[in-house]
Amino acid sequence: MADFEQDIITKLRSGDENSLRELFDLYYKPLCLFALKYVDSFEQAEDIVQDTFINFWNSRSYNNIHTNLKGYLFRAVRNNTLHAIRKESKFRFEEIDNHVHSLIEDELPEDELKGLKDLLFKQIEQLPPKGREIFRAIVFENMKYSQVAERYGISVNTVKTQYSRSLSKLRKFLNVLIVLALP
What we know:
Layout: H1 3-13, H2 17-36, H3 42-58, H4 69-87, H5 93-104, H6 110-125, H7 129-139, H8 145-152, H9 156-169, H10 174-181
Helix pairs in contact: 1-2, 2-3, 2-4, 2-10, 3-4, 4-5, 7-9, 8-9
């Protein structure tokens, strides 16, 4: 487990709620992108990730983590995603399992990742101008929806819609986005 993850776990075990916020800020976007690979909307992916963090805190799951916090969170999101899919009677379980294992184990070779990044950046350039600007602000500048809305003088809902559309167009590159968003 990385030192920063161990520090967060130690703080959580001592009851520090701010450390949950720190953990949330660190992994929220990568986990949402991961969940989005398997659900139909960004809003649903966000709900799954938020529920995961709520359950993580309420059940004090952090007391049982001794090795890999990142892996634990991705598995928890995978399980919650499977549960949501079961509710909707969709069956993509094997696909989810294959992707979570490759993410957790960091199996992407460096040269393959570089090639995928190049393709991703080309695809980003092909997005509509407003969608591209919003996507870059959220993903690369780490801005919140409200900050992006204020920057461009649009509503938060418009930001969410544009971001969701951009992610849909980039769906096959979500693995690369997840890796780029991880600390």
